[in-house]
Amino acid sequence: MIYITQLIYLRDGEEATFNEFEKVAMPLISKYNGQLLLRYRPTAGNIIEQGMPAPYEIHLVEFSGEADLENFFNDKEREKFIHLKEKSIKTAWLIKGTRL
Known about the structure:
The chain is α+β, with helices and mostly antiparallel strands and 100 residues long. It has a single domain, classed as Alpha-Beta Plaits. The chain is built from 4 helices and 4 strands; from the N terminus they run E-H-E-E-H-H-H-E. The longest helix has 14 residues, at 15-28. The radius of gyration is 14 Å and the shape is globular.
């Protein structure tokens, strides 16, 4: 199994655009042997310590392997809507790892 964690930072006022992209992208995860384990929007009240700006959302996703992850990123349906992602996301951190 491979796990990815994404810290997603949005451009101001682009929440609706981001959510449009997510409506397409999220259902495709299972098509590639993946599972959304967590989709979280942190709030100031639940941050214990902070040395960087809080992201808009945090995603934790599990895939069976690297090939499934790559196939998800290269999905043709997802690529049709990638302009929504590019318009709405200012920056994102993608952290790949394995479960210990």
